[in-house]
Amino acid sequence: MTGWSKFMRLWRWIVYLSALASLVPLNAKSEGSLSPDDNQVYPVKGVIEEIRRADASVTIKCGAISNFMAAMTMPYFVKDKKELEDLRIGDEISFQLHVTDTDSWIGGIIKTGTRSTAANVSTAQVPLRPVDLPSQNPLLAYKFTNELGQAVSFDDFHGQALAITFFYTRCPLPDFCPRLSKNFEETEKALESMTNAPSNWHLISVSFDTDLDSPEVLKNYGETYEYDPKHWSFLTGPPEKIAELAHAAGVHYDNDGTTISHNIRTLIIDASGHLQMIFPVSGDFSSQIVSQLIKAASATNVIAARNQEIN
Fold this sequence. Notes:
alpha+beta; CATH 2.40.50.320; Glutaredoxin; 2 domains; seven-stranded mixed sheet; 15 strands; 28% strand; elongated
């Protein structure tokens, strides 16, 4: 568990992420300024909704960022914790959003005013606790739709170790949903190139942006990560079924048609269908996913032993 302990010290907190109605590619240059270290910088104004000083993070309801993303509410990391010392919930601020290919953070925070709030306390929601689905749960047999337009159920992956995460393709910041997909890309490449690696594993990315993430959109998205459909599927389905699946996985999300806020979960399910591991944050932990999937794949030995006992 040493590696996991180091990981938890490195990666900070469970985030609640909001999305946007439209997205312009991160390499747009109109309003942002390109610094010498390839760091895109955007001027932003917003109102503080939550502060986590211990985690050096602040949730801000901000206006639209020209040529980057629409108005939204989401958490941001702050490199210098001192910038948060005199801030309170309800403060109006201006700041700079820094975005690179792999990271994002804010700085240069200036308080410009204050709005009244009901209480100067954090309102973060407590994440749901994942549960093992009973083997006869109808949700396991329900046919979701994958990126190829095919009907797919979780029962179809019986006997395989699974890594499951929830995301949406329009997520703009590289260290949130794109990082989760990058983890799966690196996991897939590592397992496929590994000598004597198990073959009974599969990656599943479930989109809760059911209005816009069609099979075609999901397929195009998967191709940007060089996905292999034999080992990685992107799923969509009716909103109520996606919500039911997310609830079972301990994922909270809110999609109002314009923005999406959600916490983050990557779940490892062993080959016998039991929850083995949860990664509750975003971050670079593909090597841990690889190790967990190798362990999870070995649960087929348990299945075989049980079948022998029955027979």
